[in-house]
Design brief:
331 residues; alpha/beta; Rossmann fold; Dihydrodipicolinate Reductase, domain 2; six-stranded mixed sheet; 12 helices; 13 strands; 41% helix
Length: 331
């Protein structure tokens, strides 16, 4: 059986969710894919856990990393990436949408040290997509980033594995579950924006500071990634016109509903734009709650609509593990 070892960089909600999911699915992955996935280490801001053997998945989440054998306080992530004997780095840190850091440096260091990369961090790709692709080509290693654009919704894999003969002519849809939840609550329950936002926070759907989502920044980053990865463009975040949902009122939503429309925050990849738009109530993109819905128009398959859960640690783990298994299969 093939063994494939990963170094996890970033131990927040997504990192912990990945380890929990991997523990639950490790035996299934061995049986279905013939791949024994092992975790060689875990890095966070204060240091790295690099045991002599592999990380024990049954105990790594039970107590702080700093209390576990193999913890190295103050070890810089870049040094750990270079030192590690892992086959791949799984980069899960939060990113700066203006610079792509610190994930950009982590990804480049991994490639330069002969490691593949799987990541959910969209900031490096929204700011430095070409630089990452050039580094991938130069090093001969592989970067996979399905989890950056739709959580468990398989957009990049759909294009890479299924639509191999198709050229994509347009991509547009709902790329953020938080804003869709808010707009759904306003439409279906007749509540104002602030009340819908507060409920999203209480349920853990929105971050304490939801600016990144409400202003459309998250959706815009995904537009950049899809434009570059699926439509062969070379754009950055600054090329996207962005309008969020903060100014959408209950009255606006109610008026739209009376005329048979719902208001949705739409990322339009071809137009390089994020904005609230009217969507007919019976249109495939009129999904509710935290669902994402994306429509691809291609020259052969025509319209392809993909709907699924676009956020959450378990859903994101599905995409990350898919990429890691793909990388292991290429070893």
């Amino acid at each position: 059986m093939k063994q494939y070892r990963i170094l996890i960089v970033g131990f927040g909600i997504i990192g912990k969710g990945l380890l929990k999911t991997l523990e639950q699915k490790q035996a299934y992955i061995r049986k279905r894919h013939g791949v024994d996935l092992r975790v060689s280490g875990v890095c966070e801001i204060n240091g790295c856990l690099l045991p002599k053997g592999d990380v024990d998945l049954s105990t790594v989440l039970s107590k702080p990393l700093a209390e576990q054998e193999g913890w190295r306080q103050g070890l810089k992530t870049l040094d750990a990436i270079k030192e590690s004997t892992a086959d791949a780095v799984v980069e899960l840190t939060p990113g700066n949408i203006q610079t792509g850091q610190p994930g950009l440096n982590h990804i480049l260091a991994a490639l330069e040290s002969g490691k593949d990369v799987a990541t959910s961090n969209k900031a490096p790709f929204a700011t430095n997509y070409k630089r990452i692709m050039d580094a991938q080509e130069k090093t001969g290693k592989t970067v996979l980033f399905e989890a950056t654009v739709g959580g468990a919704v398989p957009l990049l894999n759909l294009y890479r594995e299924t639509l191999k003969a198709d050229s994509i002519e347009s991509i547009y849809g709902i790329l953020n579950g938080t804003t869709n939840f808010i707009l759904t609550k306003m439409t279906d329950d007749g509540v104002p924006f602030d009340a819908a936002l507060n409920e999203a926070k209480e349920l853990g759907i929105a971050e304490p500071d939801p600016t990144y989502y409400i202003q459309g920044i998250d959706t815009a980053a995904k537009v950049v990634i899809l434009a570059n990865a699926l439509m062969g463009q070379n754009i950055t975040f600054s090329d996207v016109k962005v309008t969020g949902i903060a100014d959408i009122t209950y009255e606006t939503v109610s008026l739209a509903s009376k005329h048979g429309y719902a208001i949705k925050l739409i990322g339009d990849v071809g137009a390089r734009e994020v904005s609230p738009r009217l969507v007919p109530k019976h249109h495939p993109l009129n999904v509710s709650g935290t669902l994402n819905a994306i429509q691809l128009n291609t020259d052969i398959a025509r319209d392809v609509t993909v709907i699924g859960r676009g956020a959450g640690p378990r859903e994101t783990s599905s995409a990350i593990l898919s990429d890691v298994i793909t990388l292991a299969g290429r070893k």
